[in-house]
Amino acid sequence: MNTDFRGNFKQGSTPNLILKIADLDGTLIDPSIIMLTITGPGENVSIETVLSNATPYQVTNGYYVYEWAIDADQAVGTYIVDWEYVVNGVETHQYHTVSVVEDLDDQPSYYTERLVALRNALEHHIACAQNIPIYFEQAKPSRDRSIFDFSFKRWNQASGIRVYRNQDLIETNVDVDWNKGQVVFSDTLLDQDVINVDYNFRWFSEDEIDRFLANAVLSVNAFTPVSPYTINDIPTRFIPAVLYGASKDALRQLMMCLQFQQPQQVFGGPDEAQKAFTNMEALKKNYEEDWKLLLEQKKLGPYPSIQMFVTPEYTLPGGRSRWFRYLFK
Q1: Distance (Å, whole) CA 1 – CA 179
Q2: Tens of pLDDT along 217-241?
């Protein structure tokens, strides 16, 4: 089973499990029925159902949240969150992986609450680049014709896919690797079988998103007064500067990619890609102007408060004559 990892959660905590539902165009949609089941931990020989058919609450269109009250003695390990929902009469599952740990301080900082929040905020600024639909792309088969690859990886599980075999839509005997951008058949297909897929993918990986954010924080640190902030402790007042700085770097990388043939095809060919490049350049300049304006405000403070009360020596009894002796000896 291919899943998306959603973070480490401490025993006794109440984390929010979040689901996004969208169509292949990236438009947020609402299901007619939705529930979730949690099973685990996967490390145990006998996997138990921790939560069954729970109902999340709706935050806004296409976004659902469930507050999971983790017991203080919950078994440590990896759990599978199975989101089951029905859209237009079609039952769909999204699978997420979470880890229950004893102490977050002993875990990697890859999925800290601050970092996840910043990732989500940045993706709102570059949403179109993270929700790119591809329709009816023909697959490249492996030698045994059981695994089929496509041009782009990092498929959005929230948007789902449509798999066609000889132009007929199929829904069984096929597994999806969302990160690698592959469909895997349980049986070997015939040489004359042609596989096409509709999918929606993210242009930037999580590593790239994290690099944009880290560079933006370092830029904030470099401006006067110099500071030692990291992603996890940077003050809230600098978050807009971090997001604008990361957005301009993301646009810069996307503009560079448009100089090459395959990325150009996503935008409709070289001519359409050149138009997109021009529009992105104007947008990048807007982000840069706002970013510089915010960073220039850093020197205005607030600065750390430093107070010291000093009683001059010459104001003490006999201090004035002592001060003159120091001055003229």
Answers
A1: 12
A2: 999 999 988 999 999 899 999 999 9
Helix (H) or strand (E) holding 58: strand 57-60
**Per-residue DSSP letter, 315:** G
d(CA 224, CA 301): 10
Q: Which residues contact 279 (CB under 8 A, 6 or more apart)?
A: none
User: pLDDT, tens digit, for every residue of 243-257?
Assistant: 999 999 999 999 999
Same domain, 229 and 328: yes
Query: 26: domain range?
Result: 4-108
Q: Is 154 left (phi over 0), alpha (psi -120 to 50) or beta?
A: left
Name the domain count of the chain.
3
Q: H/E element holding 165?
A: strand 162-165
Is 284 in the same domain as 219? yes
258 and 121 inside one domain: yes
* Alpha-carbon gap, residue 220 to 218, rounded angstroms: 5
Residue among 212, 168, 210 nearest 189 (CA) = 168
Closest CA to 64 of 90, 91, 83: 83
pLDDT digits (tens, 9 = 90+) for 76-127: 999 999 999 999 888 899 999 998 988 876 655 556 678 888 998 999 999 9
| Residue where the block lists tokens 């905020």 | 121
Last residue of a domain, one of 168, 185, 201: 201
- One domain, residues 208 and 329: yes
Tokens of 104: 């977050």
Choose the final residue of a domain: 185, 201, 217: 201
Same domain, 24 and 151: no
pLDDT in tens, 181-211: 999 998 889 999 999 999 999 999 988 999 9
DSSP lists the bridge partners of residue 174 as: 185
Q: What is the pTM of this model?
A: 0.78
For residues 141 and 182, give the distance between their C-alpha atoms in angstroms, rounded to a whole number. 10
Domain identity same for 118 and 209: yes
- Who contacts 214 (Cβ-Cβ below 8 Å, separation ≥6)? 231
